[in-house]
Amino acid sequence: MTRITGKDASVKNRELAALAPIIPVLVVNDVAHARPLAEALVAGGLPALEVTLRTPAALDAIRAMAEVPGGVVGAGTLVTPQDVADAVAAGAKFGVSPGATASLIAACEEHGLPLLAGASTATEAMAMLERGYDMLKFFPAETSGGAPALKAIGAPLPQIGFCPTGGVSPKNANDYLSLPNVLCAGGSWVAPADKVESGDWTGIESLAREAAKLER
């Protein structure tokens, strides 16, 4: 186990953000869907995959997706140190959280898991910056003021890069991605529940291809 610092984590997260404009935010209910879902998204040009720890199948889904060539799988909805330990054991290469607590940050640093921590205010962003984190998740994006709010935060804090998540869609993705402090965005629309449940991997790959073309 190799410890990392906030600065190390931010470097890794910026590298992750550079892979594609959109990071799929995935809720996997059936582990049988995990590998074909990952393969479809990677084939469509979205290699960074966030599997949220919201279902009993999530950790097994991470294990399955970690074996997909070209993919980089991470664990979302990290809330506790135990979530971090479980995610790392399952093969997660990065972690995403809705917010940040001292114990969660410490667990990620101890386990060497780059954390993309959530922040929605200037104070939260500044607190993370003090710890070396200059790449954060803006969450919940739309209900926190959307692109205008993130633009406003970027004026006094231009050194912080963001991945807005929460309400990001094809209709507003460009509003976010056009901002200088947005490096990528997280979205669930590239893997809609109906297509996942029906096994429409071709349809999901098509959605991924469209998302991968978004400009930033």
Q: Termini distance?
A: 35 Å
CA-atom Rg in angstroms: 16 Å
Class per helix and strand makeup: alpha/beta
Number of domains: 1
CATH topology tier name? TIM Barrel
SSE sequence, one letter per element = HEHEHEHEHEHEHEHEHH
* DSSP summary: helix tally: 10
Q: Could you describe the largest sheet, including whether it forms a barrel?
A: 4 strands, parallel
Assign a percent range to the helix content.
40-55%
Overall outline: globular
Question: What is the averaged pLDDT score?
Answer: 98
Looking across the biggest beta sheet, what order are the strands in? Answer: 3-2-1-8
CATH class type? Alpha Beta
Spans of 5+ residues with little confidence (pLDDT < 50)?
A: none
Q: How big a fraction of the residues is strand?
A: 15-25%
How many β strands by DSSP? 8
* CATH homologous superfamily annotation: Aldolase class I
Q: In CATH terms, what is the architecture?
A: Alpha-Beta Barrel
